[in-house]
């Protein structure tokens, strides 16, 4: 639904609308007319943005844009123009009309000086295309905007939020769990979840992140998610057990995982966990291996196969394959001594730690500090005799 170049009688439109809108909105039209006549474009923009937040304004937003805002849109800050356009686009009943409307705005902000607004408009248009099932067009928009954003030194947070939100929705639709997990967490970092997401949206986002963490083939540390306040949205809901499951996975606690597996079939509206039970079992074995290595001190990382078998509950003959998988995923680095059946680990993937893991590290540091003090005391006591000789 492209905009057409037509002469607009602004005073006549505002006067007519003023008489037809609810009483609570009439004063806006008086102010619109006053600010328009005085050419106070910034104040007028702010007043329009305020109007769009009014619950009763919905049925009047399209006409306000098409018969009023377009008359002075070249005076509006381009980012504000996109924000106004996005709000209005949501009021069309047909998604294609929304896409056409936003496409027209894209052409108006496609200048070298307003690439930030351009990215915002393209990403939000891509979201409407995603809702229409146009995955390829959505991906093209994401790829184009990613290249543009890489060239910015800084940009408004709302633009990054838009980019990561739409990207995460695309990856969710494609069942790309690892990319969804990354994009969704970056999106949450750009917003105030208490102010910008409803309780239902927080619950849904937390659930999707949990599923992505559990099924993402390259995600082997949940620390960032476990420390995120988005999980607090589960308190008192049917998904509260998922938090326990995430902590169990992050700690490589196979016993806890097996005890919680009975809940999977109860998630009847999304049985994806039940369907991927074997994959999850393999994944928690890897996470158990990582945690076993992480808990050991740096001078105690020559680990017998038998210890790994006990930690992961795998037969001894399957340990080598598990370690090779961990090495191929770059979760650990080291070597396998097949003769003595020992794994020598020289490096373990850095992790975002949960509180329990931080406490464990604190205890190891305390132990190391005591050993250093013991050596220092010995040197002080015995060193005098060495230097005296």
From TrEMBL:
Pfam families: PCI, PSD13_N, Rpn9_C. GO terms for biological process: ubiquitin-dependent protein catabolic process. Keywords: Proteasome. SMART domains: PINT. The keyword ATP-binding does not apply. GO terms for molecular function: structural molecule activity. One of its GO terms (cellular component) is nucleus. Residues 179-350 form the PCI domain. Belongs to the proteasome subunit S11 family. This is PCI domain-containing protein. It comes from Mortierella isabellina.
